[in-house]
Write a structure and sequence with these properties.
mainly alpha, 2 domains, two-stranded antiparallel ribbon, Transpos_IS110, transposase activity, Transposase_20
């Protein structure tokens, strides 16, 4: 059993090294893209998370007609169903799961590391949104801003993106 455990650990070490090499290769390839500076200017989008977002949305500018269609593709925009006297607003179940997963990370980092993201998240929580809904709403807003910035080639500007929270202090880690 000791020999088997050593072999399993050696296999795990090889797999971890392969994952590390793949991550470095993906980051290096992403750095070569012309939109690298725009994507990584957003809080929470580094080399790997930015590469994932960029890989999922693609570099074709006409793929999405507007920011709304990109948000629907990502699953961050709500679905409103109305029938007669009733109306319900729910989240999307059919979406790009990989983009939604990286969006969760992106929104979480933005909500903890920037005053604008933290203020937007806190405002949604104060409106009785749950944690997941507040993060999804922040992701929705960031995704719309990413669409706009990629269309015009402009870097992210927190003061323009979150004007109500620009003068608040930077959140600190607890």
């Amino acid at each position: 059993m000791a020999a088997q455990a050593l072999r399993l650990l050696a296999t795990r070490d090889t797999e971890c090294a392969s994952v590390e090499q793949l991550g470095q290769a993906a980051a290096e390839a992403f750095r070569q893209r012309p939109d690298y500076a725009v994507v990584t200017s957003f809080p929470g989008l580094g080399d790997l998370t930015g590469a994932r977002v960029f890989a999922e949305i693609g570099d074709d500018r006409v793929r999405f007609a507007d920011a709304r269609s990109l948000k629907a593709f990502a699953g961050s925009s709500p679905v409103t169903k109305a029938s007669g006297n009733s109306e319900s607003v729910t989240f999307r179940r059919v979406k790009n799961d990989r983009l939604a997963a990286v969006g969760w990370i992106w929104a979480f980092v933005a909500s903890t590391k920037t005053p604008g993201g933290a203020g937007h998240y806190r405002r949604r929580r104060d409106r009785s949104d749950r944690h997941a809904a507040a993060l999804r709403h922040l992701f929705n807003r960031l995704l719309g801003q990413l669409y706009f910035c990629l269309q015009i080639g402009q870097l992210f500007d927190e003061e323009r993106a979150f004007p109500n929270f620009a003068d608040q202090p930077q959140p600190t880690a607890a």
